[in-house]
Amino acid sequence: xxxxxxxxxxxxxxxxxxxxxxxxxxxxxxxxxxxxxxxxxxxxxxxxxxxxxxxxxxxxxxxxxxxxxxxxxxxxxxxxxxxxxxxxxxxxxxxxxxxxxxxxxxxxxxxxxxxxxxxxxxxxxxxxxxxxxxxxxxxxxxxxxxxxxxxxxxxxxxxxxxxxxxxxxxxxxxxxxxxxxxxxxxxxxxxxxxxxxxxxxxxxxxxxxxxxxxxxxxxxxxxxxxxxxxxxxxxxxxxxxxxxxxxxxxxxxxxxxxxxxxxxxxxxxxxxxxxxxxxxxxxxxxxxxxxxxxxxxxxxxxxxxxxxxxxxxxxxxxxxxxxxxxxxxxxxxxxxxxxxxxxxxxxxxxxxxxxxxxxxxxxxxxxxxxxxxxxxxxxxxxxxxxxxxxxxxxxxxxxxxxxxxxxxxxxxxxxxxxxxxxxxxxxxxxxxxxxxxxxxxxxxxxxxxxxxxxxxxxxxxxxxxxxxxxxxxxxxxxxxxxxxxxxxxxxxxxxxxxxxxxxxxxxxxxxxx
Length: 513
Description:
Residues 1-24 form the signal peptide. This is SbsA Ig-like domain-containing protein. Residues 39-139 form the SbsA Ig-like domain. Keywords: Signal. It is elongated, with a radius of gyration of 30 Å. The protein has one helix at residues 9-27; strands spanning 43-47, 61-65, 79-83, 86-87, 90-94, 100-105, 115-124, 130-138, 143-145, 158-165, 171-179, 182-190, 195-197, 209-217, 223-231, 235-243, 248-250, 266-273, 279-289, 292-303, 307-310, 323-330, 336-342, 349-354, 359-360, 373-381, 387-394, 398-405, 410-412, 418-420, 425-430, 436-444, 447-455, 460-462, 475-482, 488-495, 501-508. It contains one helix and 37 strands. It has two domains: 28-138, Sandwich (Immunoglobulin-like), CATH 2.60.40; 143-508, Neuraminidase. The longest helix has 19 residues, at 9-27. The strands form nine sheets. Strands 26, 27, 28, 29 and 30 form a five-stranded antiparallel sheet that branches. The protein has a four-stranded antiparallel sheet with strand order 1-2-6-5, with no helix packed on it. Strands 4-3-7-8 form a four-stranded antiparallel sheet, with no helix packed on it. It is 4% helix and 49% strand. It is mainly beta. 39% of the residues are buried.
């Protein structure tokens, strides 16, 4: 019979401690110990970190284990992402060595921000052992601001943003920017963590104010900007410059107004690039044609061999009628698709023309009803190269309307051309399915709200939350883009409370595509 005296005290304590450790390992679910003595499964690291905040729904949840697990072991029962008691759906991807599990959410929490819990319950390791543990984090709100103000100095006004996304998904914004010498064009890029300037603010080199830029990015992500300058002699003139990697330079040897006649007033430039990154430009110019002065839409382009070449004949459907607000895009055949608003005896309507083929798309102008005003219009091409047009039409009330061209006729999104019965100004971009995403301003009592709606393939869906910071303050111009996850980004100018114009940018906190 063994007694305490039959073994030294130190050796007995070692046995007791070892036994205690074994018992603890067998009873502790969070460490995943195997009571049979097999391999222990542990959660070595994870993102987001425990108690992290401001997490985007599109960001992957990554779980790294000390030992491998099998894809079959990862089920909705063993790995859960919980919004309260509701399990969210996800897609899973397991690394080749079985040690890194990536979860991408495919369903969203009921509201944002949300406190989410990743709960692992009895997940079996391929070499034995199981794991039960959890950690929590907090998502961002519905809309997430990209840094602070877009402009470098908020004491200088910024307005009229034009936006595009480069191949890396970074947002580029061109805008008019008030400096001591007057208004200039500024261009800045969001690098993922901060705003950085692309060169210094610029104009054509004169002392004139520059404003209302339109932005395009070439195949390498370098920006091309068309804008308007005003002077007392020539009125408004249109110019174009591009970033060569170190400075803003004109096409050709010098800045030249692109107007057909410099003394005519010119406005609303639109710019698009062909497959060689050569720019094509359209604008509205108040000119004399066949004895009648009216606003005419003209288009032209630049090539290194010929310089700037413009069609001297206006694109108007009827030359005697005013045509304004051109929008331009380039199809895969390097043909410019041009849209504009034109007057007629029955009110305003929208014409869309393939200027490369010199043919109008569809019969008659786009409009919801006769005798209405159309103060705003935008057009983009879908992946098939067919145009999608959104416009505001108003009479006693106002509404935003949308149609798409299917190659032969214009069609509605759904049973009607009405996208929303509200909206006094808007910006439009297309998602990867060619469906429009529309940012628009609307008023509610004394408040002005910047909202977003989108076509989801079956209906117009309003995204939650106001985009603007303070609905009680004045809302100025805005533009929008859609990122690689089909989540919209909106850039807008808002009163800072003291009469200043400050640019902000927000991304919708949506799911990954």
